[in-house]
Design goal:
Length: 147
């Protein structure tokens, strides 16, 4: 291979890498996560790095135990950080594939990331939990309610 040809190919590879990095940078700029406490009184938003960018405390929190409120805030922040981290992992995986770079990024996420297999399981909607057996079956074999 001629040196000029090799240099031209190398230049093209560098330009492609630069364009890919720019695209990833733009995608990561749009990443963020948010979470709301189960009672709906606390909402937090974080950016791609997990830094808190917004905190909303509803007026109903007045008079609440400060330790409970701070604990609920920290739980919501961790959930929002996991959501943002999941987006980062997805972008990195799509752009660069699995490998040492992605493993390194994953290892630096203090709260893990959504989709890492440790997500809390959402309860089934009530409609799916209902016992839909015919009445004769239900009363012949009632559910165990004293579990």
């Amino acid at each position: 291979m001629e040196p000029d040809q090799w240099l031209a190919q190398y230049g093209q590879k560098i330009e492609q890498a630069k364009q890919s990095a720019t695209a990833v940078q733009e995608q990561l700029g749009d990443v963020g996560g948010s979470a709301t406490s189960p009672d709906g009184l606390i909402t937090v938003t974080v950016n791609a790095s997990g830094a808190l960018t917004n905190l909303v405390l509803r007026p109903q929190l007045r008079g609440e135990d400060p330790e409970r409120v701070s604990g609920a805030i920290m739980t919501a922040v961790a959930q929002a950080q996991r959501a943002a981290a999941g987006q980062v992992v997805q972008i990195m995986s799509e752009s660069f594939g699995d490998g040492p770079a992605l493993d390194f990024v994953k290892s630096k996420m203090p709260n893990g990331y959504s989709g890492d297999g440790t997500d809390a399981v959402e309860p089934e909607p009530e409609i799916q939990r209902r016992d839909t057996r015919p009445d004769d079956d239900y009363f012949t074999n009632p559910p165990d309610v004293m579990a």
